[in-house]
Amino acid sequence: MSSSSLHPMLNMAIKAARAAGAIINRAALDVEAVRVSTKQVNDFVTEVDQQAEQAIIETLLTAYPGHGILAEESGNEYGNRNSDHIWIIDPLDGTTNFIHGFPVYCVSIALAVNGRIEQAVVYDPTRNDLFTATRGRGAFLNERRIRVSKRTMLREALVSTGFPYRPGDNLKQYMAMLGDVMQRTSGVRRPGAAALDLAYVAAGFSDAFFEAGLSIWDVAAGSLLVTEAGGLAGNFTGEADFLEQREILAGSPRIYGQLVPVLAKYSKFAGAGDKAAVRQSLENNAAESAPQTEEGQSQEDGKAE
């Protein structure tokens, strides 16, 4: 799709994403000189995140001064927070990758109109890959129409995910969920930039993506890419109202449908019975993996009461 036939708001989002990408690429030439701050343990922000975000906001609000902004680093500090049009921005998704020089990161911009995502851009500045979507008009990579993969068997699927990294994340439950998925698929990958993971599902490079703990700016643009490419997106139980629920599953329809029953019991919306079964399984696994004493008892069992 040529730029002349794009929705004008999508064209403006592309302009903003490319401006941010230019800032990121310049900084990547000497990434060790970039100043890094810690928002919380293992959660970083750089001066590049902030500069890229400002470039995006200035571009969008110059064109549409009455619109609202929801951005990862500045929240809703800019723009009209009561507007029907809200731009949802992640200026550098994959900051940890970026500060290590690992070239998997992107710019993510989505436009929500009355709460529904209508426009989406995910831009990979390292490869100059531009993923775009307008609701009802399909998804594109560098102006070429993209579709989700045609694989129908979960055992043949390549699935991407993200690992827990924040204090308080339930690592044991996540590892159990990961194990459930790994033994049913041909492979699991963890690239480290959720918006790009979703774009890759839309392009058919992978068959599905799942992750818990994500914010709306991580998934807004990528989820529209997936659905406009013929895929499905929802929470782990398959419900479509997922944007602010901090869990997402996206994939081609057949693979998505086979992953829902695998992941549903790990959802925060799972029934009490499923949650109890998961807890019991984790407790059983912990007991089985406890170090054994010479008498054959686990060290936990052998403690004096």
Automatic annotation (TrEMBL):
Biased composition (Polar residues): 282-296
The entry's keywords: Hydrolase, Magnesium, Metal-binding
Cofactor dependence: Mg(2+)
PROSITE patterns per the UniProt record, alphabetical: IMP_1 (PS00629), IMP_2 (PS00630)
Known catalytic reactions: a myo-inositol phosphate + H2O = myo-inositol + phosphate
Assigned EC number: 3.1.3.25
InterPro entries: IMPase (IPR033942), Inositol_monoP_metal-BS (IPR020583), Inositol_monophosphatase-like (IPR000760), Inositol_monophosphatase_CS (IPR020550), Inositol_monophosphatase_SuhB (IPR022337)
Annotated spans, Disordered: 282-305
MF (Gene Ontology): inositol monophosphate phosphatase activity
Entry-linked Pfam families: Inositol_P (PF00459)
Cross-referenced Gene3D superfamilies: 3.40.190.80, Fructose-1,6-Bisphosphatase, subunit A, domain 1 (3.30.540.10)
Family to which the UniProt record says this protein belongs: Belongs to the inositol monophosphatase superfamily.
Protein name: Inositol-1-monophosphatase
Source organism phylogeny: Bacteria, Pseudomonadati, Pseudomonadota, Betaproteobacteria, Burkholderiales
